[in-house]
Design a protein that fits this description.
3-stranded antiparallel β-sheet
Length: about 80
């Protein structure tokens, strides 16, 4: 999970094989449309052995606002 460094911080959840490359991509403004124009820092990560497991967990975290808020507020 990424957290924006703006005054009004927001979170972004996604999966990738290369985390550092993905963060650099987002911070350069070339990532997902939602991430453009913001600077990001990593606040939470999980590792899975299959793509299907990662996608399933990504979906769960994206749709669980309480979990996202808890992670966001504990990872300052």
């Amino acid at each position: 999970m990424l957290k924006s460094l703006n005054n009004k911080s927001v979170t972004y959840v996604g999966y990738t094989k290369d985390l550092s490359k993905r963060i650099k991509l987002h911070n350069s403004g070339k990532g997902a449309k939602f991430t453009r124009g913001r600077k990001w820092k990593l606040i939470y990560k999980e590792k899975y052995s299959t793509k299907n497991q990662a996608i399933s967990r990504e979906y769960y975290i994206k749709n669980n606002r309480i979990l996202r808020k808890t992670i966001k507020n504990t990872k300052k």
